Amino acid sequence: MIKPATTRNNRTTTSRNIDRQTRPRTQHNAFARIGATARWALAVAACLWLAWCTAVGPLYWNDSSIANFGALNALFGILAFAIYLFIVVVLVRKAHHQPALGWAADRATGERTPRTLIPRSWRTTWRKRAATFRITKTGIWLQRISACCGRWIVRCTDKRWKIALVLVIGWLWVPTTLLAAFGADLRSQACEFSWAWNQWTGLKQPYIGFFSFAPMDIYPTAHYLWPDSPTYLTDQHNILLTLWYGSTLAVSRYFTGSNDWGIVLLAAIQWLFAIGCIAATLHRFLNLPWLARNEYVDFAHPERGGRFAPTRLGRPERGMRATLPSQSAHAPARIITILFFLLCPLAVFSTISLTKSPLFAFAFTWAFGIWYELYATSGDRHAPAHGAPFLARFHRLPARTFLAFLAANAIMLISAKYAWYVLLFEFVLALIADRRHWKVYVFALLVPTVLIHGGISMAINSGIIISGDPIESHGVQLQQIARIANKAPETIPESARRKLAPVFNLDQMAEAYFQQDADPVKSSGIQSKKVSYRWRSVTPESMKHFNEAWLETVRANPVVAVDALMAKCFGYFDIADLPYVSMDYYVYNDQVTSNSTWIKYYNANWRAWVANTSRQISRTPVLGWPLHGNFYVILTLLIGAAEVILRRWRTLAWHLPLLLLMGVMITAPANNFERHMLPIAFCFVFLCLTFWRDSHARVSTANTGARACTTKD
């Protein structure tokens, strides 16, 4: 009688244990499926956004509306979505070491083979012909030339000074034949400093008045922001950059009588700065300098290993030389990366373009390389693919690299006002993803942000400088109100009109509306301009009701409001849209050709030919896309979507600032303004290299881990 009861109890206990072991696994599988679904949903949402921008692009090219969305637009959107999603799927499959088109099973044998668009018989024939060609004299000769070129490409770029020399040679024609590139912003900054200098030297000038027109009235800045005591410096273009540009041009006027020599000097300094930033970043991504180089191998301890190769093949008497680590980039990656910076107009013209965005972009690229070093030495599971040894202990950032990181972040803060948002965002992500480097992040990110941004805020509060107008951050709202006033003024509620009246003249606002740019609506420009924004009479109290009036206006006509939003930002994500303002604009415009003293006569025909040729090539359908900034924005977004699917969270932690910069582009005054896309374009090649190395990290980590475990046993 007792035995059956005992057996029954044992069975019950066994079943309970099985349930306890199975339940967590089942729950884990359910959570994994939910997480995978959420990640793929996010990637699909990114593809839908890109497809939507592509679909509505033709509508806004013709100044139309989404109300006229037709079958052709739907076809464009479907094709774009299919292409973008296919790219994401291919990236994910390649990261998992799977064929791009998946597997195909043989019906007879059941063998799995990679699915391709080319028939197997054709591939077999081509392989046989290629194998036959390789053993011919011509094939052997080509293989030797290819190997020789590959070795020399690596040897010519295996050190920072060699990369810098390549950039100097490749970019030397830019400052010597074009001298400098600039626009109206530089002239405004020089004017601001000049008026401030006149005030400091005791010269009385117009200030606040109905008939007066000071430099602060150009953008303009609301008069309620002006201190009671006259001051002519503003934070419109970042005060520190204004002081740097303005003082240099003032010294140039003092010694030479014109701004031109100062402009050339500023362009030359930025050209050198660009070479230093790009060379340092290329060196980090291509050569992985944080690895112990063979030059420092202790020959008294041969067990520590080393990498050597003959100085010259076939001549052993010339000895051996140190070689780069196996994780460093090979010749094709090096030549593609360097050619991008040497040939792409986005990079070439930025080296001498005296605006805030190129300076910020080069500093951001410099910091991006240091972020890569921090990531590669953080102990991440993908770190072995970037040079960090398997199961290596924590590596501190070298003092020289730390100072470079600090300098790059400080220059970003000096060049662009939105840089402090980017740095704070990076700081939060860095503490989440890599807490062991917290001291680096505090002193290289947080401290300069507090000192520089805090110092500027204190100067504004004390009345030393004038703050930028808050209306600058309302570009989307301004465009929506202006488009509704232009297209359907009768739909604006009367209550909204009353609230907007102290801030804007709706009639002038409707006339000034231009869907590509919000500056006309903000009354930016010289004295003869439409007064849409009542910057002379607006008060903080009247601005309090602006958001309420905007919301009432948008609710009354949501279709036109959506049109205004999309018309202002779709070009950043539509691969077929041409740039509203490309980088060649700064090479050839009225400020250069008419308002300069002698620069306009220096190689005038050559300058015009360079700008026009670049513009014509970039306008070539499909072939000109790699010369546009939105090409790199779109591909960066797709790579980010693939990283989300692959759960590369540490990589995303230092790639997400690129997404934040896309948000800055959407809120920028103009649509498809190429200078806002420069940081993303410069970092794209490095993003691809990181993705490729992360995709190969699993195999290398597994192999290294197996060797480490075997040695330990």
From TrEMBL:
Keywords: Membrane, Transmembrane, Transmembrane helix. It comes from the Bacteria. Residues 1-23 are annotated as: Disordered. The chain crosses the membrane at residues 40-61, 67-92, 163-184, 238-255, 261-282, 331-352, 358-376, 440-460, 623-645, 652-670, 676-692. InterPro entries: DUF6020. The keyword Transmembrane applies. Pfam families: DUF6020. Residues 1-16 have a biased composition (Low complexity). The keyword Membrane applies. This is Sugar ABC transporter periplasmic protein.
